[in-house]
Write a structure and sequence with these properties.
The chain is α/β, with parallel strands linked by helices. It has one domain: Alanine racemase (TIM Barrel, Alpha-Beta Barrel). 42% of the residues lie in helices and 16% in strands. The protein has ten helices and eight strands. It has an eight-stranded parallel beta sheet. Strand 6 (154-160), helix 7 (173-190) and strand 7 (196-198) form a beta-alpha-beta unit. The protein starts with a helix and ends in a 6-residue tail after the last helix.
């Protein structure tokens, strides 16, 4: 069994255990494998194990990587997205998790219309209030959600957040609960459900699942520590030596 297989099996079992604790079905959870900085060989190795959803932080990296990967994969934009990358984002990604302003949403709408596409999106909300994080302020999220929901080419699917870094995953739980409450408030105003919550990474995805996540963004627990500098050789990737 390769390192990739071992890591994937451990993550899969942890997801299943978290679902049991939460009284949920594992089928409710989409595992987004965060492949940023990892080469196509690593993505394809994971794809051969059955993973179909992969997350990238930068549109330019994804633009170069995606053509070299299995064509059946679904790609998620999970990093901060600049408006000048909106056209690529609409073209490349099955879902954009990081819509953090109405201006960005309007730019995505423009390019989705030009490409005759619909773009599923999540609003990123900075529930922790950390100055170094992107995302809507909680007090503006409802109004932005209503405005985004009115854009015909965007499909508002839900919300995303990042909890503050901590070695203790329990410290993420209050932030995840705030996002769940924010989703409820928006649903009340929309009069319709938002099906998705993207919350939880390698260090806290079990708490995310227990609090209601439908998408978890896992890098290091699957790929190993993030690559520094040059990409490793393909022969190393074959052994699974390899992030969030």
């Amino acid at each position: 069994m390769s390192d990739f297989e071992q890591r994937y099996e451990i993550v899969r079992r942890r997801i299943e255990a978290a679902c049991v604790r939460a009284g949920r079905a594992p089928s409710e959870i989409t595992l987004v494998a965060v492949s940023k900085t990892h080469p196509p060989e690593a993505v394809n190795a994971m794809a051969r194990l059955g993973l179909r959803d992969f997350g990238e932080n930068k549109a330019q990296e994804a633009r170069a990587k995606i053509p070299e990967c299995d064509g059946r994969l679904r790609w998620h934009m999970i990093g901060h997205l600049q408006t000048n990358k909106a056209r690529d984002a609409v073209r490349l990604f099955s879902m954009i998790h990081s819509v953090d302003s109405l201006k960005l949403a309007q730019e995505l709408e423009k390019h989705a219309a030009a490409q005759s596409r619909r773009a599923p999106v999540l609003l990123e909300v900075n529930v922790s209030g950390e100055a170094n994080k992107f995302g809507l302020k909680p007090e503006e999220a409802v109004d932005v959600a209503l405005a985004v929901n009115a854009l015909p080419r965007l499909e508002l699917r839900g919300l995303m957040t990042m909890a503050p870094y901590s070695d203790d995953p329990e410290k993420s739980r209050p932030h995840f609960r705030r996002l769940v409450e924010m989703k409820r408030r928006i649903e009340e105003r929309l009069g319709a459900p938002l099906p998705d919550l993207s919350m939880g990474m390698s260090g806290d995805f079990e708490a995310g699942i227990e609090e209601g996540a439908t998408l978890v963004r896992i890098g290091a627990a699957l790929f190993g520590e993030r690559l520094k500098g040059k990409s490793r050789a393909t022969s190393d990737i074959g052994q699974g030596h390899s992030e969030d």
